[in-house]
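Q: Convert this sequence to structure tokens.
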Amino acid sequence: MSIDLISRIVGFIVFGSVGGFFGGHLGVLLEHSLSMQPQPVIVYYIISTVLFAILGFIIAPWISVKPINALRKNLSDLSAQTLVFGIFGLVVGLVLSALLAYPLSLLGRPFGNILPVVTTIVFGYLGVITFVSRQKELRSFLRIGGRGQGSEERSKRTSSTGERCQILVDTSTIIDGRIYDIARTGFLPGELLIPRFVLNELQYVSDSADNLRRQRGRRGMEVLSELQKDSNIPVTISDLDVEGVREVDDRLVVLARQLNCPILTNDYNLNRIAELQGVKVLNINELANAVKAILLPGESLEMAIIQEGKEYGQGVGYMEDGTMVVVEDGNNYIGKTIKITVTKVLQTAAGRMIFAKPD
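A:
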């Protein structure tokens, strides 16, 4: 039984009870206002009970379940930092309203009864809005104010405990496998955080009926096992999750916003979605392209020609980082290692392409 149906049943009972309780009074009121002929009281009780019960069955989810779901969704989209500043602003607003409540209560009626309540609502709302909208300035102020005698002690404590930022890891990154080599070099300045739903997706891929997907999933399991065995790589599998979101990519983006941490991925679509929502992305493919060796026209190097090119007479070789080198008139050197001279370097959407000729 769904929550929506349960709320309708509860609304049916509660509103029906209210209608039955006030049925006689409503009947008398209708008789006097509409000059109706008097009817037996039981008729008014039955009609009122039925009408209120139907009304309760219809509107119960709109006054109970749906507002709660909307509030929960909005709260799940908020970052932890925004939530903390909002609560702090609410506390400050309530404290200020409490200081004004007693003087306002001394006023004559009705102001003495109404103004304290109105002040509490207004100051609480203004406190939340002010602290949330000014959270960046307040954070900078608190950071500046905290630089005093205790700043040196805090820095020592941070360095001694080894605090690190967290990096959310996507499933595609684990399957790719290069994450282990990158993490082992120490270029990832933080703790690798793998949510449980990412691990579940990896297990789903490894159990796939498709042979290629199954091999990739099992390779990801092996990479994850190697990461956990390496004591120099901080890896944590967390049960953190996002309610109300089903897609793994969307859950990663929302979780990254809540934790204020980057996402490590090589998925182009996830990269674009995260950037559009203001989430920092560490893309392994971009890193790979950035660290490729840069060759300039006129430089010489040795290259093994392994296959024919698309055009007549061309030979193709590959550098250690996978960059393709097209050698003019290299068709006669297939299977041999020759010295070549770079003639042109092209940067394409797929990567860097180098053209050369035999030296």
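The chain has four domains: 3-67, 80-136, 163-289, 294-358.
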